[in-house]
Amino acid sequence: LANPQWGGRFATGPAAIMAEINASIGFDQRLWRQDIRGSLAHAAMLARVGLLTAGEEKQIRDGLHDIAEEIASGTFEFSSALEDIHMNIEARLSDRIGEAGKRLHTARSRNDQVATDFRLWVRDAIDGIEAQINALMTSLATRAHAYAATPMPGFTHLQVAQPVTFGHHLLAYVEMLARDRGRLNDARARLNECPLGSAALAGTSFPIDRKFTAQELGFTRPTANSLDAVSDRDFALEYLSALSILAMHLSRLAEEIVIWCSAPFGFIRLSDAFTTGSSIMPQKRNPDAAELVRAKIGRITGDFIGLLTVMKGLPLAYAKDTQEDKEPVFDATEAATLSLAAMDGMIRDMTPDQGRMRELAGAGFSTATDLADWLVRVLRVPFRTAHHVTGRLVGMAEAKGCDLSDLTLDEMRGVEPGIDASIFSVLTVEASLASRTSEGGTAPINVECAARLWLERLEGDA
Ligand code: ARG
């Protein structure tokens, strides 16, 4: 049987495999809310410009609301012979209300319809992801405030470098997430133009009011070029690229969580709710959620590259290739949503071992830079020379198997005669931390202030 929506010039229906490769209803039914929203706006516009009577428009509106209820309650029967969500809904509308339903597609093509639906879907998804990012930022900033003065080792090359505070470390991720949110916001502003009314590719001869539909659907304005509007998917690519960068940040934090909760580090303990056991080793507490968040970037970046590759080399205007835009976007959204929720749970529930972090914050001569800085500040030794002197003192302590602060004054004077007892005051972790008051530095007063500022801003955003 030929397709009832377009089969007029066809003698037979499609081959089974044609129908199978063509149908998108299996995945694009997720656009049903956006499709109905778009159709309601389109019908309202058609009535406004006199292409539908008020009565027809009301029939369409009521019919679409009933269909929305059928879909929401699970009684709607999706048909793959009707290819996609757009034709499933339109066919059902005509079943229910007859003639008026058949008028809905006036001055519209599935090409501008799907471009509109998909923009609406991505816009909704951005709003959801942004809300989740806000929640995670709030959890991180809340914990950063609580641990604003808690020392931990700061690393470069994953080697102990200088002491930092745990709060400072957590706030670094708040900054990254804020930029992720900004990227999504920028993408949202750029995508917020309405393709509806571009029709198949060239516009329409009907006297439509595109500003009206754009406004009805919360778009800033109609798209400016009908060819571009039906074939552009860079709004989806921008969204996926922003999600890829977000996933990269989450993957870094996840990796740190995996490291922190391993026994040799022992910086944090994840809650039972966010760990799993081993089927053979009874003692194990595995950070599976963190590992999965670390891994999700694989899918998300794959989704981005996948769609980018689909779009490469596509001639204007619409081509069926773009039907392949949806699954990567749905998949990446699901992965990002899960990752953000799992990360938020882990951050809220984790218990830092402050004693262990403090102990390791002072290990590995982490205050050596403070010693060098003292030589510069007090003895006015040039920094390069101070670096060299300090290096010799570190070598001496390492040979003795002690900390820098365990060297005697005489031992130190053997290397640099100007050193006096006041040097010991800069060799503690606490003194080192307190001294890092430069803007953006790790001093506890800075961190406490930065955490408070973020919490205030986040409350304002909510
Ligand atoms: N299911 C199609 C898609 O997702 C809808 C547009 C179909 N347009 C067409 N000319 N066949 O892209």
Give me a quick take on this structure.
Belongs to the lyase 1 family. Argininosuccinate lyase subfamily. By secondary structure, the protein is mainly alpha-helical. The protein is built from 19 helices and six strands.
Write the layout of secondary structure elements.
Blueprint: H1 16-22, H2 25-28, H3 32-48, H4 54-73, H5 85-97, H6 99-103, H7 110-146, E1 151-156, E2 159-165, H8 166-191, E3 193-194, H9 210-216, E4 221-222, H10 226-231, H11 234-260, E5 268-269, H12 288-311, H13 326-349, E6 351-352, H14 354-361, H15 368-379, H16 383-400, H17 409-415, H18 429-435, H19 444-461
Parallel strand pairs: 3-4
Antiparallel strand pairs: 1-2, 5-6
Helix pairs in contact: 3-4, 3-7, 3-9, 4-5, 7-8, 7-13, 7-19, 8-11, 8-19, 11-12, 11-13, 12-13, 15-16
Bound molecules: arginine (ARG).
**pLDDT averaged residue by residue:** 96
> Rounded to an integer, what's the Rg over CA atoms?
31 Å
Please identify the oligomeric state. Answer: single chain
Largest sheet: 2 strands, antiparallel
Provide the β-strand percentage band: under 5%
Shape: elongated
Helical content, roughly? 55-70%
Strand order in space, largest sheet: 1-2
Attached small molecules: arginine
* Amino-to-carboxy terminus distance: 53 Å
Query: What letter string, H or E per element, gives the SSE order?
Result: HHHHHHHEEHEHEHHEHHEHHHHHH
**Uncertain spans, ≥5 residues at pLDDT below 50?**
none
Q: Note the total helix count.
A: 19
Please tally the β strands and state the result. Answer: 6
Query: Which secondary-structure class do the elements indicate?
Result: mainly alpha
GO molecular function, one term: argininosuccinate lyase activity
Subcellular location: Cytoplasm
Catalytic activity: 2-(N(omega)-L-arginino)succinate = fumarate + L-arginine
Protein name: Argininosuccinate lyase
